[in-house]
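Most newcomers find our protein records easier to grasp once they have seen one. Sequence and backbone structure share a record, each on its own labelled line. To make this concrete, we reproduce a full record directly below:
***
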Amino acid sequence: MHLLPTSEEVVRILRDTGALRDGHFVYPNGLHSNEYLQVPLAMRYYQHARTLSVGLSRLLRANPEIRALVPELSIVAPATGGLPVAYGVCEALRAKQVYWAERDEEGKPMRFRQYLEQHPGEQVVLVDDILRSGSKLREMKVLLESSGAQVLGLAVVIYQPNPNTVDFGPLPLYYLAKLEASYYSDGQNCDLCRRGVKLEKVWV
């Protein structure tokens, strides 16, 4: 394994741990796809979690602006999938702290834990396991900026964009591997449905 894992090495870890699967999947938003990924299945194993987290931290440290701010840098993630990555990146970078936002129930806005003190000008890197639609990371970015924080970049293990992926403009995006899955808007337009490939519903 290289100091910075290659895309091929990252994908091999995901396949060996069952985190990356081929098949016919339908997401809660109705999109059909030929791939499904759950990075937390790979993060169960200490060595893999360390390889992915350290690799991502090295990408961040290569940015001189972020490297200079590390002692005061906050690593922020959406619960719960992003937390193992966020803690691993924070440890590898030796950043200041980790915290996260969560929902009390489905459909409610994300919020930070009670008594969590934020301050204007706080320097933040947003971390998650995967960027697929980007909707949670966009909500997190708005939530942070509303409290006066400055988001310096996004860091994810896997970038797997779909047709509805949010455009974050000039904000730097760091990732270890990019996956190009096939997406279909619904069953009527899905090649996998037409071929009769067994369909499996997934949660996220």
